[in-house]
C-alpha cells in the first residue's frame, strides 16, 4: 500500500470518527430530554394516582354515586382544582393534568378567576 493511500485512509477514518462523535452528542442530548420527560411523567402519574385514590376513598360505592352525583358542592370541586394548580399542574382544558413547567399558565388563571 502506498503511503499516500494510507494517509488518505486515515483522513477518511478521522472524518467518520468526527461524524460519529457528533451523532453521539445528539443522542446524549435526546437521552437527557427523555430522562427529563420520563421524570415529569412519573411525577404526573404519581399525582394522578393520588387524586384517583382520594376520589375513590370519597366515593366508596360507585353504584349509588350516579344518583347523588348532582348534589356534590361546586365549592369542593373548585378547591380541588385550585390546590391542583398550586401543586404545579394544569387545570385548563388545554393541558389538564400535565405539569406546569413554565410558571403560571394564563388559561389556568382565567379558569380559576372565572368562578
Ligand atoms: Zn394551564
UniProtKB/TrEMBL annotation:
InterPro entries: YabA. This is Replication initiation control protein YabA. GO terms for biological process: DNA replication; negative regulation of DNA replication. Zn(2+) binds at residues 90, 92, 105, 108. Homotetramer. Interacts with both DnaA and DnaN, acting as a bridge between these two proteins. One of its GO terms (molecular function) is zinc ion binding. It is found in: Cytoplasm, Nucleoid. Its cofactor is Zn(2+).
Amino acid at each position: 500500500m502506498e503511503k499516500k493511500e494510507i494517509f488518505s485512509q486515515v483522513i477518511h477514518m478521522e472524518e467518520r470518527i468526527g461524524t460519529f462523535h457528533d451523532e453521539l452528542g445528539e443522542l446524549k442530548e435526546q437521552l437527557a430530554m427523555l430522562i427529563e420527560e420520563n421524570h415529569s411523567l412519573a411525577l404526573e402519574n404519581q399525582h394522578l394516582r393520588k387524586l384517583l385514590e382520594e376520589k375513590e376513598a370519597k366515593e366508596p360505592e360507585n353504584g349509588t354515586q350516579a344518583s347523588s352525583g348532582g348534589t356534590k358542592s361546586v365549592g369542593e370541586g373548585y378547591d380541588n382544582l385550585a390546590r391542583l394548580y398550586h401543586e404545579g399542574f394544569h387545570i385548563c382544558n388545554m393541558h389538564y393534568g400535565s405539569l406546569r413547567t413554565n410558571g403560571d399558565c394564563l388559561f389556568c388563571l382565567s379558569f380559576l378567576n372565572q368562578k
